[in-house]
Amino acid sequence: MGELTIKVTDETFKADVLDSNVPVLVDFWAEWCGPCHMIAPHVDAIAEELKGKLKVAKVDIDENPAVPGRYGIVGIPTLMLFQGGKVVERVTGALPKGRILAQITPHLEDSKHHHQHKH
After folding, report:
1. CA angle 95, 97, 100 (to 5 degrees)
2. Is CATH 3.40.30.10 the classification given to domain 5-111?
């Protein structure tokens, strides 16, 4: 795991994700989940590509059952994009990186227009 992704627990979820002033992509995964390991490099690559626009967090659902329970996570890998403490996008399953980016980048574009007035 690169230093671009942060490890989030049930205890730190509110501070790291819900109270974040930048959008946070949360990767819900588990050690035993094969597809989770398949998309891990994509998630790391997205963290690298969108550095500064997006924070990427990983939640191990075995160690931290409360958060996945609260958001009704049934299958993993599940990626959820949080903005201002709300879920704005949910990506389930081992999708190619392009598909994941296609689902999350429109939200990031929106947030850019609201906050920055540089052209």
Report:
1. 65
2. yes
